[in-house]
Structure formats: C-alpha cells, structure tokens
Amino acid sequence: MIKKETIVNLINEHFAGTDKFLVDVKILKGSVIEIYIDAPNHILIADCVELSRFVEGNLDREKEDFELQVSSPGATEAFKVVAQYKKYVGTKVKVVTKEGAKHEGILMSANDNEFVIEETRREKKPVGKGNHTVVENITLTYNQTKETKSVLPF
Q1: CA atoms of 19 and 16, how far apart (whole Å)
Q2: d(CA 74, CA 120)
Q3: Are the CB atoms for 131 and 122 separated by under 8 Å?
Q4: Looking at residues 138-147, what average pLDDT do you find?
Q5: Confidence band, pLDDT 50/70/90 cuts, at residue 111
Q6: What is the 3-state composition of the chain as percent helix, strand, coil, each rounded to the nearest 5?
Q7: Is the dihedral of CA 55, 56, 62, 64 positive or negative?
Q8: pLDDT tens-digit series, residues 34-81
Q9: Distance between CA atoms of 125 and 8, rounded to whole angstroms?
Q10: What global pTM score does this model have?
Q11: CA-based R_g, the chain, Å
Q12: Which of 68, 80, 85 is CA-nearest to residue 6?
C-alpha cells in the first residue's frame, strides 16, 4: 500500500522553491489517491497536471496500481492548513470554535500561531432603546478552531 508520507514527501519536493502548498492528501479504498493543492493567488489546471505527472513518475505502478486525482480544494471546503488562512486575509470567513461559538467576519490577519477576524454585529444599546453596531476583533488560535470556511460573496 502506498503511504501518505511518501506522497507528502514527493509533493513537498516538487513544490520546493515555489509559492504552491499542499492542503491535504487522502488515500482511499481501491488505491485512490486524492491530492489537494493551493497557492496564494490560484492554482491552474497545468499546476495539477504537472504535479500529477511528477508524483506518478516517482511511484511504481508495477508494484502497486493506483488512481491519482489532483485538484484545488473547493471554495466551500474548510481550511486545513495555515497557508489557507494567509491566502484569505481580507475576505469574509465563518469560524466555529471547538466550544461551539460561531463567528463571522473579515479575516484581518493570520500568522503561524493565530488569526484575527473583525466581527460586526448588532446589539441592544446598553442604555435606551434600539440597537447599535459593535465591531470587535477576535483573536483565535488554530487549536481553538473546529472549522473555518470562506464566505462566498453573492
């Protein structure tokens, strides 16, 4: 059986010195290998084809047959790596924490340890009637986060 570690090492070797990055590798039943890649701007079909050929060229089909699929993650897929957070700085995201709290706002910054979203919401005024707008920067670590997704503008 082809090991995930082998695939990850091949991808990292191929992407060395580029801005492209690995998002996820899945090895499914029937020797189906799914590879998800991304880049700060975007991934081209040519990038997927090039990586597919590189990985396939470094694996021995005589030893074990496999199906290889290379693509970028879908726009509605949850973020899996820090590089995705950095890519989406300045866009709207939805975050669910491990405690179940939900936040939605603009991803303001992301580093290797944490990220900040600017959440705007309406709350009741502390004094008087009606509501007022509250803008709050919320800092979260990746360990606190269950799921983060990009919100598509419609």
Answers
A1: 8
A2: 26
A3: yes
A4: 96
A5: very high
A6: 20, 40, 35
A7: positive
A8: 999 999 988 999 999 999 999 999 998 888 889 999 999 988 899 999
A9: 52
A10: 0.86
A11: 20
A12: 68
